[in-house]
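Lab channel / #folding
Pinned by the channel admin:
"Please post every new chain as: sequence first, then the structure tokens as a reply. Keep commentary short and put observations after the output so the thread stays searchable."

First post following the new format, from NK:
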Amino acid sequence: MENVILSIIIPIYNSEEYLERCIESVVNQADDSTEIILVNDGSTDGSQKICEKYTFQYENVKLLVKKWMAFHLQEIMA
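Reply from TO:
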């Protein structure tokens, strides 16, 4: 993927129920200059598997796994 002009970041935490619909919507609107970054914040449902499916299926979809990112951000901002 060359010349990325737009990065779309999708934060994920236990959103298995509507995650595929969300990713499909973004993928269908993206072009070759768009990268989609899925950030899984330690989900305990099937969200991780869904994310992996899309990273294998689409070259412009990337997965970043960070456990408890929201918790750490809350500590920093306190």
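NK: Strands lie at 6-12, 34-40, 61-65.
TO: also worth noting, The mean pLDDT is 87.
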